[in-house]
Write a structure and sequence with these properties.
The complex is a heterodimer of chains A (218) and B (149). Helices cover 31% and strands 29% of the residues of chain A. By secondary structure, chain A is an alpha/beta fold. In chain B, 0% of the residues lie in helices and 50% in strands. Classes of the chains: A alpha/beta (218), B mainly beta (149).
């Protein structure tokens, strides 16, 4: 394998975007264990999960961390705004939706929600998430790296439920969406979005997913 | 030994405070407060509850609107629905259930840490598709790596 093959994002059979709708496949995760490690020593930690309700995830995080979890399911809110033709209002809505007090949350499971937002809405959400994180808090985000154009677009009309299988494996289960992924953000733009946080770890996985663990400086 | 289970039928409507010291199944409508501190409360498929619930265990197959506090477990089964906050050391939410709210599984001081045992959820089929990854990044500073490049 040449150097370019190592650097360029590849479309492989393990790419989640290449899966049929409602498919479920297991992918490795490098950042989840580190995310858990950031929170295990916390007393009465509080988590925000931006994704849909996944019962087994609630059990997993609850039993691992003994935490309080707010499940926001922002994907449902995104679909509702698309359905009602009010997508331009989404950014302001997200600011209200993340209603936790400042510096009150230990961890945020952002999953790949940012990928589905326009830049202004993504910036508003990122600012709110940064606000609610406690110093030393952690935010786990997934970001697609594959270009979003051509026939790829039709396959992107779906969201992914990330179901924790264990600390190092996630099941990706797709379900229909009303909005496709927006253009993939380069690293520098992701870092700019979360300007108040620092990148603790970043992993580019074989499935073209970038996992980034942010920490709020103490 | 036979165990008594009281059943509130689907034609029954109760408004106010419901207290008990035995297991209870509700198929009717209840508004107010339900307290079964040391017992199991089951909201049947026809049950519709608008109430704060306090019980040892709560099993939801119907609809609940209100906060649910259990000293042992809250179990929202397939087609069960809860709009409210859950407080319990153990929570199970089935795939086809509806839930909107927060889940508080915080281990308060002095509480048994038995629930802290990691859940060993078996990895389903297709493990052949697991992306192999290299060893973890070295500690200290941002780590950037391409897994299985």
């Amino acid at each position: 394998m040449g150097l370019l093959d190592r650097i360029a994002p590849r479309k492989t059979e393990s790419d989640p975007d290449a899966l049929p709708a409602d498919a479920e496949t297991v992918f490795a995760t490098k950042a989840l264990r580190k995310f858990l490690g950031c929170l295990t020593s916390r007393e009465l930690p509080v988590l925000i999960d931006l994704g849909p309700v996944v019962g087994s995830n609630i059990s997993f995080f609850g039993e691992q961390l003994g935490c309080k979890i707010f499940v926001l399911d922002l994907f449902a809110d995104l679909d509702r705004h698309v359905r009602e033709g009010r997508i331009e209002e989404l950014g302001d809505f997200l600011v209200k939706r993340v209603s936790q007090e400042g510096a009150s949350v230990n961890g945020v499971l952002c999953w790949d929600f940012i990928d589905y937002l326009d830049k202004p809405a993504a910036q508003k959400l990122a600012t709110e998430l940064t606000r609610v994180l406690r110093p030393d808090g952690a935010l786990l985000g997934f970001f697609g790296t594959a270009p979003q154009q051509g026939p790829q677009q039709s396959r992107d009309m779906r969201y992914t439920k990330f179901i924790v299988a264990d600390e190092v494996n996630l099941r990706y289960r797709t379900y229909p969406a009303l909005r496709k992924r927006q253009s993939s953000l380069p690293n520098r733009d992701i870092i700019k979005l979360f300007a108040g946080l620092r990148v603790s770890d970043s992993f580019l996985l074989q499935n073209n997913q970038r996992e980034i663990l942010f920490r709020k400086p103490a | 030994m036979e165990k008594d289970i009281v059943n509130i039928g689907k034609s029954v409507v109760i408004k106010g405070e419901l207290n008990g010291s035995e297991d209870l199944t509700i198929e009717g409508h209840v508004e107010g407060t339900i307290q079964l501190k040391d017992h199991v409360l089951t909201i049947g498929p026809n049950g519709k509850i608008k109430a704060q619930i306090f019980a040892k265990s709560v099993i939801v197959l119907g609809e609940v609107s209100g906060n649910v506090t259990a000293s042992d477990k809250v179990d929202i089964r397939d087609n069960g629905s809860v709009d409210g906050d859950l407080i319990a050391p153990r929570v199970a939410i089935a795939e086809g259930a509806h839930f909107r709210g927060s889940v508080d599984m915080q281990r308060k001081a002095g509480q048994s840490a038995t629930a802290a045992q990691p859940t060993k959820t078996p990895v389903a089929a297709q493990t052949g598709n697991v992306a192999a990854v290299p060893p973890p990044a070295p500690a200290g500073g941002p780590a950037q790596q391409r897994a299985n490049a």
